[in-house]
Amino acid sequence: MEEKIIIAGFGGQGVLSLGQFIAYSAIADGKEVTWLPSYGPEMRGGTSNCSVVVSDKQVASPIVARPDCLIAMNKPSLYKFVNRVKPGGTIIVNSSLIPDKVERDDVKVVYIDAQEIAMEAGNARTANIVVLGAYMGISKLFPTETVKKMIEGKFASKPKVIPANLKAFDLGYAAASK
């Protein structure tokens, strides 16, 4: 088993954190993993993306040219990476910021209104966690409890935000599983 993922969006959307959640969850589940960030010089608003490779075997390279899954948090990221996704792969689109429809019929496309769902979870800043839940709902890469433990650990110093993040994860998972 090997899953190659590209996660892309604007700086400040939690793109790199989303990749780290997947990577750390994979490690906790006993998988081999690489996480490779890429971002512009801007702190917020610039481009940001990362690649994650999860495997049962040692990962030869962290470079992902042809992902199995693209998570696009904004329109420029969708158009930058859409044609790289392998046929039969998956594209998760943050439809809150991307009204366009993906014009490929050889991939599975899932539209997630991440901002709206994050507001429903009680914190607008949890959109990346909504998408994490959606990805897990589609991929079933490892147990949800593993990911939830990573969320709890990441926010252990801010326990007040843990319930909203866990709810965001569950709502994203449910939205993608429909």
Automatic annotation (TrEMBL):
Keywords: Oxidoreductase. It comes from the Bacteria. The keyword Oxidoreductase applies. InterPro entries: 2-oxoglutarate_synth_KorC, PorC_KorC, Pyrv/ketoisovalerate_OxRed_cat, Pyrv_flavodox_OxRed_cen. SUPFAM superfamilies: Pyruvate-ferredoxin oxidoreductase, PFOR, domain III. Pfam families: POR. Residues 11-174 form the Pyruvate/ketoisovalerate oxidoreductase catalytic domain. The keyword Oxidoreductase applies. This is 2-oxoacid:acceptor oxidoreductase family protein. It comes from Candidatus Stercoripulliclostridium merdigallinarum.
